[in-house]
Amino acid sequence: MPLIPSRFFGLLFALAAGLMPVAAIAATLSSGVDRRLEATAENGPRALLDGLSQLLASKPALAATPASAAALAAAAAAPVPDFEGANLPVYREIADRIVRAAPLAQRQAVRIAVDGALEQFIVTDIRVMPSPIPRTIGTGATQPPDIGGPGYKVGSFTLYPTLQAGSFYDSNIYATRTGRVSDVVGTISPNIIAESNWAHSSLQVNAGTDLSGYWTHGSENMIDWHLGAEGHIDASRSTRILLGVQTLSEHEDRFSPDAVEGLTPTPYRELNSYVGVVRRLGNFSLRVGGAVERLTFGNVEGLHGLIDNHDRDRNRFTFGVLLRDDAQPAFRPFVEALGDVRRYDQSPDDFGYFRNSGGYRSGLGTLFAVSSNVSGEAFIGVMGRAYADSRFKSITTVASDGYVRWQATKRTAALLFLDRSIEETTLPGSPAYIYTVVGGRLEQDLWSSLTAFIRLAFARCDFVQTSRWDNEADMSVGARYYFNPSLYLGVDYRYTQRISEESVVNFDRNQVFLVMGTSF
C-alpha cells in the first residue's frame, strides 16, 4: 500500500466507472514460474521485466497461445501493485514483451488475451485509478485507463497518445431541486503520456485536456486541463526516492456541497507536489515522505453580484511514515501515521471564521490475499483536526478504509470499497464534514469484445456542529464494446441523487453517455 502519493492526495480505492473487460484466464502456470517472477520483483519493476524477458527467451511456449500468454501476464502483474511510483508503464511493458514474443500469426489474439488479464489488476490499482464517485462526480463519465497500444519510441521515451470523444444527455445540468434545465453536451478529451525506457529509475509525464460544450447553455462550457510528472530514483538496491508534481485547471461540479450559486461553474487551480523515500530493512519496508497542495478558486458572477471565492484559497502540507512487514505475501500488516497542516490565504473568511487547522491520521492495516481470486486491503485507526477558531470544536473520529476484490469466475469480477475522511467546507458555523462512502462494482464479460457493468456508491456527509447531513447516491449501468484492442464504444446510464437535511439542496439527475475512444 503506497504512502506516496495516494494517501496524500486523497485518492480512494478503485470504483470509478469500471468499464474494462474482465480477464478470462484459461491456463495456469507452474508454481516454479510464479516463484521466479515473484523473486525477481523483489528488486523492483526493472528486475521483474528483465526476468520476464529471460523467461520468454528460455520458454517461448509461454507466449505461444492466448491462454498461456494471459496466464503469464497475470503472474507477472501480481507483484506490480506493491511497487512505488507510476505502475501503468509496468503493465504496458509486460503486455508489449509478451506480445513481441508471440508467434506472428497469434499476436492479435495474444494482445487481446494479455490486455484482458492485465486489466483486472489495473482496475484495482489505486495508483492508476481516478477517485471514486460520488465525491468527485463530474460532467463526464470517468474511465479507468486503457493499457493502450505499443506506443511510439522517441529516443529514450515511449509516447502513448489517446483520444476520447462523445456526447451525453443531462436532465438537470444545474443540480437543482426545482426549475430543472436539461441539455445535450459534447465532450472531447485528448491525452498523451510519455514514459521513460531507462534501465534504472523512471519518469512519466502526462498532459491532457477535457473540452465540454453545451448545446443550448453555452455559459456552462468548460475547458479543463492537467499536466504532471512523476517518477523514482533508484538510489541503491534497498532505497528508492519518489518524486512527483501535478498542476491542473478544472471547474467545480454543480453537485459539490461547496458549489456556490454562480451563473457559471466555479473554476479552480490545483498544484500538487510530493517527495518520499522507501527503504527496505530486511523483511520490512519503511516509507517516509511529504507533500504540498495549493488550491485557488476563481470568482464568479451570481444573481446578486460578484461571488468572492478567494476566501477558500489555501495550502495543505502533509507528512507521514509507514512501516510494513512483507515477510508473508498473503498477510502484510502495516502501521501508518500522517499529519497535515492547512493554511488559508484569507483569515478570517467572508463569514468571519478562522479555518486554519492541523490534523492527523494514524492506525493499523494490512494487505491480504485470501486466495488467488480474493485480495484487498484494510485499515482502521483514528483521525482528528483542531482549528484556529475558538468557536470550532476539535474533531476526533474513526478513520477507516479498505477494499476487497473478488474474481468470482473467469468472466465475472466484483469490487467493494469503503473510505472515511474529514473534508473542508465553507458552510457557516461548521469547521468540516465527515465523509463516509461505500460502494462496489460488478463486471461481467458477455463475450470477448463486450463487457457489461453495474456500479453503486453511497455517501454520507455529516457537517460538524450543525444539524445538516447529506445522503448521496450514484448508480450506473453500462457496457463497453471493443472493435479491436485500441478502439472501443461505451454506453453508460447514470443516476445521481442528494437528499439533505436542508431540503433546498436536494436534487436528482439522469445522465446518458455515449463515448468512443482510441489509443494510437
Short description:
It is built from five helices and 21 strands. By secondary structure, it is mostly beta strands. The two termini are 32 Å apart.
Write structural notes for this entry.
The protein has helices spanning 31-41, 45-58, 66-77, 88-101, 107-122; strands at 152-154, 157-170, 183-196, 202-214, 222-236, 239-251, 267-281, 284-297, 300-302, 305-307, 314-325, 331-344, 357-369, 374-387, 395-409, 412-424, 432-447, 450-463, 469-484, 487-500, 507-519. It has 520 residues and is mainly β. The protein has two domains: 31-120, no CATH class; 123-519, Porin (Beta Barrel), CATH 2.40.160. The strands form two sheets. The chain has an 18-stranded antiparallel barrel. A two-stranded antiparallel ribbon has the order 9-10. The two termini are 32 Å apart.
Number of structural domains: 2
CATH topology of the largest domain: Porin
Secondary-structure class: mainly beta
Number of strands: 21
Helix-strand blueprint:
Elements lengths: L30 H11 L3 H14 L7 H12 L10 H14 L5 H16 L29 E3 L2 E14 L12 E14 L5 E13 L7 E15 L2 E13 L15 E15 L2 E14 L2 E3 L2 E3 L6 E12 L5 E14 L12 E13 L4 E14 L7 E15 L2 E13 L7 E16 L2 E14 L5 E16 L2 E14 L6 E13 L1
Antiparallel strand pairs: 1-2, 2-3, 2-21, 3-4, 4-5, 5-6, 6-7, 7-8, 8-11, 9-10, 11-12, 12-13, 13-14, 14-15, 15-16, 16-17, 17-18, 18-19, 19-20, 20-21
